[in-house]
Specification:
The chain has helices at residues 12-15, 41-52, 65-72, 82-87, 91-111, 117-128, 140-150, 153-168, 175-183, 186-195, 199-220, 235-245, 254-259, 268-291, 293-317, 322-335, 343-354, 359-363, 365-368, 372-377, 379-410; strands at residues 5-9, 21-26, 29-36, 58-61, 133-135, 228-234. By secondary structure, it is α/β, with parallel strands linked by helices.
Length: 412
């Protein structure tokens, strides 16, 4: 992929009302980068017409495996094993995916056009002509994690609370939001207000993905494999990808691509913090008993009361089953002293046992989460809420009870 590269810009399609387009030659392969609008029936039509023209022998699209699966099978998310989701620590990511999907559904209802229609058109048209379909985008979960690690810790809460607040709002999607969707996908449009002013956010959200998608093309299109590849991307990525393709690409693109998929491991401090808290709490109990048996039992009782009540009350917010609430009240004080298991995991497990989701819950999941009350009505999304609220309640209880113990021992 280090051969000389000839670049040509094609303008006639824009003059005819099509999307922006660049055609570049990299070695033996020509790439036509088609900048699409993610909320546009015209873009979907243009994609179909180009693929049906017979000019291309492969199609690359701005999707990762998980989003491709969701597009090809809209019920894929609902078919996952919920218990495994909680066990693997993916509940937060699944909740975020559902929230983004809710935003997308609201846009579809308001505009009459489903965001990503041009990607679906590419999928269907390439299948109809038996053309290879290349998935070149980075996994959305990796992008979210790199965004999380790239922004300063004090900005993370406002960033993701803004994300969830925006996608769960029942207000009409603004014209400005729809215009942003024409340049980027749902994830980009949600963060665009922040990204335009933050290099730390722009880098993992936009520029890294420009480079990543070009590296994926280099991996999947070695010299001689394809003659002409249609690359269907959001218009906001066209300039960046064209610039990367105009420069010599590495002969072995995989190592660089893997660095763009890596997420920084948790710092040793954060990994050690739960064990440190456990040690401090147990030490506090020991000091209390050494001073006075009554004081020791008082500290233990306060730990169980504060942690259990806050965690149980948090699950009430999610309208958890009564047995789930009771189980959380008793489990949270114990799980807070055992970093290998969380109160949310216990709460979600009991909720699944008491209210196992039915077939209709999975069938209506994507529609239900477009309404705030739907998150509580659907058993799948409500179980996610139970997990998240129990986790937050237990964390709050741990810190409040911990400071209470410290105050009782050293407050004079």
């Amino acid at each position: 992929m280090t051969d000389s590269q000839d670049t040509a810009t094609v303008d006639r399609e824009q003059a005819a009302g099509g999307g922006p387009r660049r055609t570049l030659k990299v070695g033996e392969t020509r790439y036509t980068l088609l900048g699409t609008a993610h909320v546009s029936a015209e873009s979907a039509t243009e994609v179909r017409e180009l693929i049906d023209s017979g000019e291309f022998d492969a199609v690359a699209i701005e999707l990762c495996d998980s989003r491709h699966q969701n597009l090809a099978n809209p019920d894929a998310l609902g078919e996952q094993d919920l218990f495994q989701i909680f066990r693997q620590g993916k509940a937060g990511m699944v909740a975020a995916s559902l929230a983004l999907g809710a935003f997308q559904q609201r846009v579809a209802e308001q505009s009459g056009i489903e965001p990503g229609a041009e990607m679906r058109a590419a999928l269907e048209a390439s299948q109809a002509r038996n053309l290879p379909l290349l998935l070149i985008d980075r996994d959305v979960g990796v992008t979210l994690k790199r965004i999380y690690h790239n922004v300063p810790w004090w900005q993370r809460f406002s960033l993701f609370s803004g994300l969830l607040g925006g996608v769960l709002s029942r207000q009409d999607v603004s014209a400005a939001d729809i215009e942003r969707l024409k340049e980027g996908d749902v994830l980009e449009s949600t963060f665009s207000e922040f990204a335009s002013e933050s290099e730390t956010l722009y880098t993992p959200l936009i520029s890294e993905r420009d480079r990543y998608m070009v590296l994926r093309l280099a991996e999947q299109c070695p010299p001689g494999r394809y003659r002409h590849v249609l690359v269907v991307i959001g218009a906001g990525h066209l300039k960046g990808m064209a610039e990367h393709l105009e420069q010599p690409l590495p002969e072995a693109p995989t190592p660089e691509r893997e660095t763009l998929e890596a997420t920084p491991p948790p710092s040793k401090v954060w990994k050690a913090l739960p064990w440190l808290i456990t040690a401090l709490v147990l030490t506090g109990f020991a000091i209390g008993f050494s001073r006075n048996t009554e004081l020791g039992w008082q500290l233990v009782a306060e730990w169980f009361l504060i942690n259990g009540v806050l965690s149980g009350a948090a699950t009430l917010v999610a309208l958890a089953h009564p047995l789930t609430v009771i189980a959380t009240v008793f489990a949270a004080p114990l799980t807070s002293l055992n970093p290998t298991i969380g109160a949310g995991f216990v709460a979600a497990g009991v909720e699944l046992a008491m209210r196992k989701p039915k077939v209709r819950d999975f069938a209506t999941l994507r529609h239900d989460v477009t309404e705030v009350k739907g998150w509580w009505r659907n058993r799948v999304s409500r179980t996610l809420l139970v997990f998240l609220t129990a986790t937050l309640g237990s964390a709050a209880g741990t810190w409040i009870a911990g400071f209470r113990i410290a105050g009782a021992l050293f407050g004079g």
